[in-house]
Design goal:
- The complex is a heterodimer of chains A (306) and B (359).
- Chain A is an all-alpha fold.
- Chain A has one domain: ABC transporter involved in vitamin B12 uptake, BtuC, CATH 1.10.3470.
- Chain A contains 12 helices and no strands.
- Chain A has helices at residues 8-34, 42-60, 63-87, 92-110, 136-140, 145-163, 165-175, 177-182, 187-213, 225-235, 240-262, 269-287.
- The radius of gyration of chain A is 20 Å and the shape is globular.
- Helices cover 41% and strands 19% of the residues of chain B.
- Chain B has helices at residues 2-23, 43-58, 74-85, 99-108, 133-147, 162-178, 195-207, 221-229, 258-270, 298-313, 340-344; strands at 28-33, 62-67, 90-93, 113-117, 126-131, 152-157, 183-188, 212-215, 233-236, 249-255, 277-280, 287-290, 323-324, 330-332.
- In chain B, helix 5 runs parallel beside helix 6 (162-178).
- Classes of the chains: A mainly alpha (306), B alpha/beta (359).
- The A-B interface holds A 5-7, 10-11, 14, 18, 101, 104-105, 108-109, 115-116, 118, 121, 209, 213-216, 218-221, 223, 254-255, 258-259, 261-264, 266, 268-269 and B 1, 3-4, 7, 37-41, 45, 69, 154, 185-188, 190, 193-197, 199-201, 203-205, 207-209, 219-221, 224, 228, 243, 354-356, 358.
Chain lengths: 306, 359
């Protein structure tokens, strides 16, 4: 065992990258759930985003366009969910699960001709002298633009939810759709927009895996990140900053496990693989004492006639 | 994934059924079960190249079918059963984890011939075949040991099975031979094919100082990670992975299954097929060494090629004593070479490797 071989600076920089897909996917889902809808299709929207982004980046040669396409693809798929749950009033849990299965199948179909292709690389942002600052430089200033966009999005979501009228309306819809409806807000429209935002975020998260973290396309390559994102929203008790913390915790565990193996510490892989879920269960138990955390209308179907 | 597999399974069943009735089973039908997608650029890609070579060789006389992304375990048993029911005469199952499923299905279809890659269980209608990848690993170890500056070589293992452990030992022995200070860092990915995980593992090894990354997993993700890091060398695994040449990929181990697949198909056609155990190396050509790129210094390249020649003509064995096991007990006496039985069941590290094999 030789823990000194783990370079803490690179370790931290590594898990910032590992956490980014989680941040996007979970943040999108947070907004969706804040509006009172439970979309379990995060995994499906992520994988669709991964292939849409990958294919577009390969065809156009521009990774940035890839991310735009990924957001569009994720949002497009989420519209299906919005139609099922908001218009036809289908069960949200079942629709979400179906969305995941559909996304996985659809993405392998779309990706047939992209297996083994190398995507264009996304360059890191050049911060000039900032990157030379010891310790902080390599950790914070050597990444790609999407990673920083993740930070900004967390801050923006927090600010919008907390300080703006739009955020207040979104939360009102999530807490009591009947009251919001009585006040004249278009509940279905607001929820559909929230669902599309969630889909776009999940799509970007997926594309981050296929374009930056790996970078390659393979079937099922999101490998459960969407499910961790769902757990993460609960873990964060629907608070953006806590979500950021949780994403680093969950993302860090994977990195930690590989680092420990490299350093010669034999920890059974299975324990670390299940730890995010164990932590989430523990948090759920603690949270259950405080009923106020979850949006009151989460998962409930709304119809104007009720 | 399950869903798509189901769909491909159903489509395959349909296609096979109609095909079999149409031509009255005049063609020899050969099935292939793959653990990854044919586009993985590594292991499965090469098996599929072997399949295409069979088609090219026999033309209309054969019909080949394959199913990709078949999980090791019960799923594979269903796929094989379906293939056998649909009239396959010969089925190649191309991953270690298909071993027991192959034996189980073979017992139910005594008239169908099975060929299982990298396993050790045989039956009257089950042959095994594998390549002596460890001979290629010896050459990799030699180049890696000569070229590393940090003296740390990273190794991405898939599962702790004899085939993989053999490769680690072989690479280590030959790296140490040219560079006594060399150390191996081994990370187990517990997958044959998961690009995200393989990329993460490669990055972690590079962060921990490795400037050579050897992989025993099937995707090109570690190559991409090494390319990004800039000063790390890698070797193509199972396939040439030439798209990453000349740097970071400086050489490769190529599995050439085509001659074997053609010979076995011929044997089935002629009715001369018997259960055999084939284990060929560089000599017969089942293991190929991809072009050693110019990133390798000329003298190292010459030594590597000499080592390759010696392994090929049998004048040198990759496991030649004196060698000790990790715990210090004797493995091979001076000049003694390891027999195939020992190699096939290898479950220990040689002396000098740090760490334990996960159980």
């Amino acid at each position: 065992m030789d823990l000194s071989s783990i370079n803490p600076i690179l370790f931290v920089a590594g898990f910032l990258v590992a956490a980014t897909p989680l941040i996007f996917a979970a943040l999108g889902e947070l907004v969706v759930e804040k509006s009172g809808t439970l979309n379990l299709g995060v995994e499906g929207m992520m994988i669709i985003g991964a292939i849409c982004g990958f294919a577009t980046a390969v065809e156009t040669g521009s990774p940035l366009l890839g991310f735009v396409a990924a957001a569009a693809g994720g949002a497009g798929l989420s519209l299906l969910f919005a139609f099922l749950t908001q218009v036809t009033l289908a069960n949200q849990v079942a629709s979400g699960l179906a969305l995941t299965l559909f996304g996985l199948g659809m993405s392998s179909l779309l990706g047939q001709s992209y297996v083994g292709v190398k995507p264009p690389r996304m360059g890191d942002i050049n911060f000039g002298p900032l990157a030379d600052i010891p310790v902080i430089g390599p950790i914070l200033f050597t990444h790609d633009i999407i990673l920083y966009l993740g930070f900004v999005l967390v801050a923006a979501t927090w600010a919008v939810l907390k300080f703006t009228r739009a955020g207040l309306i979104l939360r009102a819809v999530g807490e009591s759709h009947d009251a919001a409806h009585a006040l004249g807000y278009k509940v279905v429209r607001i929820r559909t927009l929230a669902i599309m935002f969630g889909g776009a975020c999940a799509g970007i998260g997926g594309a981050y895996i296929s374009l930056i973290r790996v970078p390659q396309w393979t079937e099922g390559m999101t490998a459960g990140v969407g499910w961790i994102a769902l757990a993460l929203v609960v873990f964060a008790s629907w608070k953006p900053w806590r979500l950021l913390l949780g994403a680093y915790l969950f993302g860090g565990i994977t990195q930690l496990q590989l680092n420990l193996q490299g350093a010669g510490v034999a920890i059974p892989v299975e324990y670390l693989a299940m730890s995010p879920y164990v932590i989430t269960i523990v948090v759920l138990v603690i949270l259950s004492r405080d009923k106020s955390a979850a949006p009151a209308c989460l998962g409930r179907t709304f119809h104007a006639s009720s | 994934m399950k869903f798509t597999k189901l769909l491909t399974g159903a489509a395959l069943a349909l296609g096979l059924a109609t095909g079999a009735y149409a031509d009255g089973h005049a063609k020899t039908k050969i099935g292939f079960v793959y653990v990854g997608p044919v586009g993985d650029g590594g292991w499965t890609y090469e098996h599929n190249k072997g399949r295409l070579a069979v088609e090219a060789e026999f033309g209309d006389k054969v019909e080949t079918v394959f199913v990709e992304n078949v999980a090791e375990g019960p799923d594979s048993e269903r796929v094989m059963t379906q293939m056998a029911l649909d009239g396959a005469d010969l089925i190649f199952t191309t991953s270690f984890g298909y071993m027991d499923p192959t034996i189980n299905v073979a017992a139910k279809f005594p008239d169908v011939k099975f060929e299982h890659a990298t396993g050790y269980k045989r039956a009257d209608n089950v042959s095994t075949y594998s390549a002596r990848f460890y001979e290629g690993r010896a050459i990799q170890g030699h180049i890696a040991g000569s070229m590393t500056k940090s003296n740390i070589i990273g190794y991405i293992g898939s599962y702790p099975i004899p085939e993989v452990i053999r490769g680690i030992n072989s690479a280590f022995i030959h790296a140490r031979k040219v560079n006594p200070d060399v150390e191996f860092k081994i990370v187990w990915a517990y997958t044959w094919f998961d690009p995200a995980k393989e990329a993460d593992a490669a990055k972690v090894l590079i962060e921990q100082g490795a400037d050579v990354v050897l992989q025993h997993t099937d995707s090109t993700a570690p190559q991409a990670a090494a390319q990004e890091a800039g000063n790390v060398i890698t070797f193509g695994q199972a396939s040439d992975m030439g798209q990453y040449a000349p740097f970071p990929r400086v050489s490769s181990i190529i599995d050439d299954w085509a001659p074997y697949y053609i010979a076995r198909t011929k044997a089935v056609m002629d009715g001369t097929w018997t259960s055999t155990d084939t284990w060929d190396g560089i000599g017969p050509g089942m293991v190929g060494i991809g072009e050693i790129s110019d990133a390798v210094p000329a003298d190292v390249k010459a030594e590597a090629l000499a080592l390759k020649a010696a392994l090929a003509d049998g004048s040198y064995h990759a496991f030649t004593g004196p060698l000790n096991k990790q715990d210090g007990t004797q493995f091979l006496a001076d000049g003694e070479t390891a027999d195939d039985g020992t190699l096939a069941g290898m479950n220990f590290y040689v002396e000098g490797i740090v760490g334990d094999i996960p159980q």
